[in-house]
Amino acid sequence: MLEKRLLACFSLSRRFLVKYQRRKFSVAINEKETIDVCGKKYQRDEWTNVTPKILSHVGRNLHLQEKHPLGLLKNRIVNHFYSQYIGRTGNPIFSVFDRLSPVVTVEQNFDSLLIPKNHISRLKSDCYYIDSGHLLRAHTTAHQVELIKSGIDSYLTVGDVYRRDEIDSSHYPVFHQLDAARLYSKHEIYKQEDISGINLFENGDETAEKQEVHTLDTALFLQAELKACLEKLARNLFGEDAEIRWVESVFPFTHPSFELEVLYNGNWLELLGCGVMKQEILANCGITDKVGWAFGIGLERLAMRLYQIPDIRLFWSQDTGFLNQFRKATPTSPVTYKTISVFPQCTNDMSFWLPESTAFSPNDFYDLVRQVGGDVIEQVTLIDEFNHPKTKLTSHCYRIVYRHMQKTLTKTEVNRVHEDIGSEATRLLGVKLRVV
Ligand code: DAH
Q1: Average pLDDT, whole number, for the chain?
Q2: Angle CA(209)–CA(212)–CA(214) in degrees, nearest 5?
Q3: Where's the Aminoacyl-transfer RNA synthetases class-II family profile domain (predicted)?
Q4: Residue 7 pLDDT > 60
Q5: Does residue 296 have its Cβ closer than 6 Å to ligand 1?
Q6: Which of 11, 92, 172, 253 could form a disulfide with 82 if both were Cys (CB 3.0 to 4.6 A apart)?
């Protein structure tokens, strides 16, 4: 089964690479070339860097599978919010949006969240762009403004997010996030009868604790509500006596901002990012009488800890040895994943001179390795960098760790993939292989 998938992946990558080759390295603009995502056609342009391998993850919707660890964890968090936050009518306060398209505009992913034009998170080397105006969302926060504009005061949104990143057992270019926001009117904050003399806003200064337009009381109220809500969630997930700590942080869309960390098996695990929503964002949504908080939580890392899943690639496995272990689980039942067997790793290094004339980012190489090698790639690490004093050329050496999840790879199989990676890197990225 997996063999077939691997082969399919290979032939797909071959076709893709041949196309690429024709256009010579860096995705030249070709008016006729379009790209299909979620049933819509997009014209390729100089921003297009999404690969068929990455696009093959769109629509898998692991978070919607009830018996998948990500579906279980999502439902656990959703159920927690449903039961803890009930409105006056007896209905849950938070609405859930888990089917929003992962294709978003640059405006949604960045501009609407006040992410500066020159912010590094926008770089082509960090995101999967479909064209200059669209990308596969890099975070579920991308939906904040559209949801709030549509009149929703409290929501949870869950979905797949895409980021170009390093390759190891806890990083995969596709993962899942749950984002939430909650807005409050003056009435909801001050429960007493007469609130006419109370102001949510002032024309003040920004301090570490508050935004310039918030009164200190407003800011401290929101911070306390946010922290209480998330501490409750952390205790639900990790147990009543979980050791947790707050760390100050910075996000362009919140102030003040925090991260919540949980002590787990002796290590502080970063659980989520959060903060008081920037009032400017709410104003841009047409909201002038409410304030709010928001948070975003990554599901894979959390699920890896809760279910003892050792490798992030396993979430994508269709192997029954993996999936059956969660078949009978409920969102609250404690499941401990048992590794069926671990097949040996195979390590191969690759050194090359970087191209002189074109820009090169290690993420270009990581994507190419994934495109050619598929999921037998366990880890890629830049282990050595060297600048030649005379030629001024730079050399990179990468260590590639191969491991199949269901069988032992032979040296011949690994060498074949390794050689393919070398020749494709030469052709597509313009590197020059070095014999070590
Ligand atoms: N979007 C952030 C990330 O991906 C996480 C985050 C931080 C989400 C603060 C939020 C927030 O909604 O308020 O790292």
Answers
A1: 90
A2: 75
A3: 159-331
A4: no
A5: yes
A6: 92
**294 CB less than 6 Å from ligand 1?**
yes
108-132 mean pLDDT: 97
Centre a 10 Å sphere on the Cβ of residue 152 and count the other Cβ atoms it contains. Answer: 15
139 close to ligand 1 (CB < 6 Angstrom): yes
Give the C-alpha separation, 134 to 128, whole Å: 9
Name the strands in the sheet holding 174-185, side by side, starting at the edge strand that comes first in the sequence: 95-97, 154-162, 174-185, 290-298, 267-277, 254-264, 244-251
**C-alpha distances in Å from residue 205, one per residue of 209, 211, 239:** 10, 7, 39
Q: Give residue 343's pLDDT.
A: 87
Residue 157: how many other CB atoms lie within 10 Å: 25
- DSSP H or E run through 198: none
Assess whether pLDDT exceeds 60 at residue 362. yes
Look at residues 154, 86, 166, 99 and name the one whose alpha carbon lies nearest to residue 126.
166
Q: Which atom of ligand 1 is nearest to the CA of 144?
A: 12
Q: How far apart are CA 121 and CA 138, in angstroms?
A: 9
Q: Which pTM value belongs to this model?
A: 0.82
Ordered strands of the 377-387 beta sheet? 377-387, 394-402, 346-353, 432-434
Three-state secondary structure call for residue 79: helix
List pLDDT tens digits, range 208-257: 999 999 999 999 999 999 999 999 999 999 999 999 999 999 999 999 99
Q: Write the DSSP string, 293-321.
A: EEEEEEHHHHHHHHHT---GGGGG---HH
Q: Cβ distance 38 to 56 under 8 Å?
A: no
CA distance 217 to 91: 29
Identify the helix (H) or strand (E) that includes residue 412. Answer: helix 411-424
Indicate if the pLDDT at residue 23 is higher than 70: no
Handedness of CA 281, 283, 285, 288 (dihedral sign): positive
| Residue matched to tokens 């979430």 | 315
CA–centroid distance, 274 to ligand 1, in Å, is 6
Q: What Cα–Cα distance (Å) separates residue 319 from each residue in 2, 280, 297, 330, 382? A: 8, 47, 27, 20, 31
pLDDT, one tens digit per residue, over 175-212 is 999 999 999 999 999 887 678 889 999 999 999 999 99
Banded model confidence at residue 341, pLDDT cuts 50, 70, 90: low
315 lines ligand 1 (CB under 6 A): no
Q: Would the CB of 258 count as within 6 Å of ligand 1?
A: no
Assess whether the C-beta atom of 51 lies below 6 angstroms from ligand 1.
no
